[in-house]
Amino acid sequence: xxxxxxxVVEYFEGTRWDYRHLWxxxxxxxxxxxxxxxxxxxxxxxxxxMTGYLASVVGITPEDRIMDAGxxxxxxxxxIAERFGCRATGVNITPFQVTAAREAARRAGVEEHxxxxxxxxxxxxxxxxxxxxxxxxxxxxxxxxxxAFLREAHRVLxxxxxxxxxxxxxxxxxxxxxxxxxxxxxxxxxxxxxGLLSDAEYERLLRKQGFEExxxxxxxxxxxxxxxxxxxxxxxxGPTAPAFRRLGVLxxxxxxxxxxxxAQIRMFDAGVWRYKVVTARKPGDAVPAADAPAxxxx
Length: 298
What we know:
Helix content is 47%, strand content 18%. By secondary structure, it is of the alpha/beta class. Strands 3-2-1-4-5-7-6 form a 7-stranded mixed β-sheet, with helices on both faces. Strand 4 (131-137), helix 7 and strand 5 form a beta-alpha-beta unit. Helix 4 (43-58) packs across helix 5, helix 10 packs across helix 12 and helix 11 runs antiparallel to helix 12.
C-alpha cells in the first residue's frame, strides 16, 4: 500500500466514531455533505438528497451500470439500485467500509443489483467498457494522481458513458494567498487529501484523457447548510482538540480532523474554495443522458 493510500485508510479508520455518531453516517449511509433544497431542514434527509440530485445531474436510468469510485459505506449505490433498479459496483480501499456496504445492501434487499469490490479506483481491475456511469462523490480529492483516476474512468466507461465528480475545487482568480495556502494545507493534511484542483485544471486533465461535453456546476449554496452544521460541531469540540491531542486523550487522526474542518470552513467563508459538480462524457454512441440542470429538479 503506498503512502497516500495508507493515509486515506488510516483517516477513515481513525474517524469512524466521528462519522457514525457526529455525522450519523450509518443512519444515512453517507460520509459526504448534504444537499439542501425544497425546504429540507433535516441533516439525514439532506445527505440522502445529495444522491438524488446527483443522479438527476448525470441522468441515471434503469439501463445504466454504475461504478461508484470510493463508495464509502455504500449508501449511494444502494439508493440508486433501489430507485432505478440498475446494477452498480462500489469500489473502495477501506476494508471495514466494504464490509459495512455489503451488509447494508443485504439489509436493503438489493444484493442481486449491487456488488462491492475492495480495490483502488485508479486501478480497479474491472473490464474495459463495462459501465455506463462512473460516479465519484467527494472521493477523487483523496487521490494523489487524479489523472490516473480519469484514465481508469475512461477505460471502464462504455462509449458514450458519463462521468460525475462532486468535490471541492479551489479558486483560480485571485490565486490563494500564502496564508490561505497554509490554511488549505492544514485542511488537506487533516483529511488525507493531497490537494485541490481548480476548474481549469480539471478541464485540462479531462480533455487530455479524451473526455468531452465537460460541465462544471457550482452547488455551494445548496451545501452551505451542511457546512454550517459541521461548523457547529467544530465550535463545540474543536477548541479542545490540540490540547487533548497533546495529552493523548484524543487520538491524532480525530484531533487533526477537527483542526482541518475548522480550516476548511474558514476557507469556504473566504471564498477560497467552492463545492462543484464536474460532468463529462466519453465519446461514442449511447443513449444521451439528461442535460445537467442549473438548479435541482423538482
